[in-house]
Specification:
One of its GO terms (cellular component) is cytosol. This is Flagellar assembly protein FliH. By secondary structure, this protein is an alpha+beta fold. Helix content is about 75%, strand content about 10%. The protein is built from six helices and four strands; from the N terminus they run H-H-H-H-E-H-E-E-E-H.
């Protein structure tokens, strides 16, 4: 009995059991490789999503910056156009004022020149000027015209001579009677006929010059 109480269990079973537990706790290489590949795939997907998000953010930022730059450019262009338009309007107004002033001065100068030239022409050859007006009247009349010509008394003799010269060169028989009028300034005349009349004086010349200047100078 004493020998039976000293018998110990065989250690093989205990050692075997320990080896079995260690083997069970050791991970399977195939499983580990699959998990690693899964993690790598997840990391790749996360990296791809991060790159896509970053690219999208960059694109959105670029578009926003481009839109802001375009808006600023358009605002600058509009401001420049407004400033240019205001400058053009101011220049146009100044030009209009300068043109109006120059036109008025030119009209006054032309009128003064016309008065001066007319005065010199009257002083140099007053009868010839009246004869030229008489010629224009005769061109509008028909056969055998009858006219009355009133001039300054000092021009009667010269006018009769000029009318004789005109009659010699015209096939029509003209009846032109020259009368002296003290109220007529030298160079002025009043030519009348049955259907109308013509008055030639300094004021009418001035009026004709003004009308001509208004048409030319606006």
């Amino acid at each position: 009995m004493a020998s039976a109480s000293k018998i110990k269990p065989f250690a093989f079973e205990r050692v075997f059991s320990q080896h079995s537990a260690a083997d069970a706790a050791k991970p399977d290489p195939l499983i580990l490789q699959g998990e690693v590949e899964t993690l790598r795939a997840q990391l790749d997907r996360v990296e791809l999503e991060k790159d896509m998000a970053l690219a999208e953010a960059r694109s959105a930022g670029f578009e926003a910056g481009l839109a802001e730059a375009r808006a600023e450019r358009e605002a600058a262009i509009l401001a420049a156009i407004d400033a240019l338009q205001a400058g053009i309007e101011q220049i146009a107004e100044e030009v209009d004022q300068a043109v109006a002033k120059a036109t008025a001065e030119a009209a006054d100068l032309a009128l003064a020149a016309a008065d001066h030239l007319a005065g010199r022409a009257i002083a140099a050859a007053p009868a010839e000027m009246i004869d030229a007006a008489l010629g224009r009247v005769l061109e509008q009349l028909g056969r055998n015209p009858r006219l009355q010509v009133r001039v300054h008394p000092g021009l009667v003799e010269e006018m009769e001579r000029l009318i004789g010269v005109r009659q010699a060169g015209d096939r029509r028989r003209m009846h032109v009677h020259v009368t002296g009028d003290e109220t007529m300034p030298v160079g002025d005349t009043h030519i009348s006929w049955d259907e109308g009349g013509l008055r030639l004086d300094l004021e009418s010349r001035r009026r004709a010059v003004r009308e001509e200047l208004e048409g030319v100078l606006g």
